[in-house]
Automatic annotation (TrEMBL):
It comes from Streptomyces evansiae. InterPro entries: Methyltransf_25 (IPR041698), Methyltransf_Superfamily (IPR050508), SAM-dependent_MTases_sf (IPR029063). It comes from the Bacteria. GO terms for biological process: methylation. Its EC number is 2.1.1.-. It is an enzyme of class 2 (transferase). Residues 73-161 form the Methyltransferase domain. GO terms for molecular function: methyltransferase activity. Keywords: Methyltransferase, Transferase. The keyword Transferase applies. This is Class I SAM-dependent methyltransferase.
Length: 237
């Protein structure tokens, strides 16, 4: 598949960034600001070490998005997924709550544009994205918060645009399954939510995002106690 040369969003396609997310993300933002450098060191700067399914899902996502369209990596962290997707030929803009994560992302992935903002109030104009990713970025959010994010995902996607969601599976996403108090070598304060694929699909479906495919991968290694879910959806045209 060939892609036209990458393009960045114009200023008219961006809206003013919201540096403080309304979803009460101070603890999440602060935790990720603290771990940003260690996260990039420990998790890696690309997707080379990821299981084959992850790379496969991302390839399907890129090939399902309209050629030439800008793709958003929402909750992009240090930009490892944005950089991988850019390497597959897509133009990418990354958005994240944490200025610390974004600093590392901008340093390590110069081919990607980045903006600060929360997923319940994205700094992007309506209908501007041909595809959007939330790759483990909803894992600190309750079902109610994900519902508010889903409205934003639907708003910023163009009709027919593709959404790809990666998350940790569990029986119920209404309350944290656990709390992370120490991660990547630092003290943090992060609620961890896990949910069934059916629940994730239903929340997104309420906002006109229609499931086209799902992958459930069994856990790998000790750091993954539950299966991992990946859902591809399309915004109704
Ligand atoms: C587990 S990390 C995943 C980062 C990246 N997607 C990856 O796979 O490496 C979660 C990221 O989501 C971001 N995040 C969490 N809640 C967010 C929100 N409400 N709005 C924007 N970003 C958020 C965090 O700052 C963090 O960078």
């Amino acid at each position: 598949m060939t892609f036209p040369p990458p393009r960045a969003l114009t200023s008219a396609e961006k809206t003013v960034a919201s540096p403080v997310a309304p979803e009460g993300g101070a603890a999440v933002r602060g935790s990720y600001d603290t771990v940003a450098e260690s996260y990039a060191e420990l998790v890696g700067r690309g997707m080379e070490d990821e299981a084959v399914w992850e790379r496969g899902v991302l390839r399907v996502f890129v090939e399902s998005s309209a050629p030439g369209a800008v793709v958003g990596d929402l909750g992009c962290g240090t930009g490892r997924v944005a950089g991988y997707v850019r390497g597959l030929g897509a133009s990418v803009v990354g958005v994240d709550l944490s200025p610390g994560m974004l600093r590392v992302a901008a340093r390590d992935h110069a081919q990607v544009g980045f903006a600060a903002g929360g997923m319940t109030r994205l700094p992007l104009a309506s209908g501007v994205l041909g595809g959007a990713l939330t790759w483990y970025s909803t894992v600190h959010s309750s079902d109610g918060q994900v519902d508010a994010m889903a409205a934003e995902f639907a708003r910023v996607l163009a009709p027919g645009g593709v959404l790809c969601v990666a998350f940790m599976m569990g029986p119920d996403g209404s309350a944290p399954a656990s709390w992370l108090r120490h991660a990547y070598g630092h003290a943090v304060q992060l609620p961890v939510y896990r949910r069934p694929v059916d629940d994730m699909s239903a929340i997104l479906g309420r906002h006109g995002l229609v499931e086209t495919a799902r992958v459930v991968r069994q856990p790998v290694g000790q750091h993954e106690p539950t299966p991992q879910g990946f859902v591809l959806l399309r915004r109704a045209a």
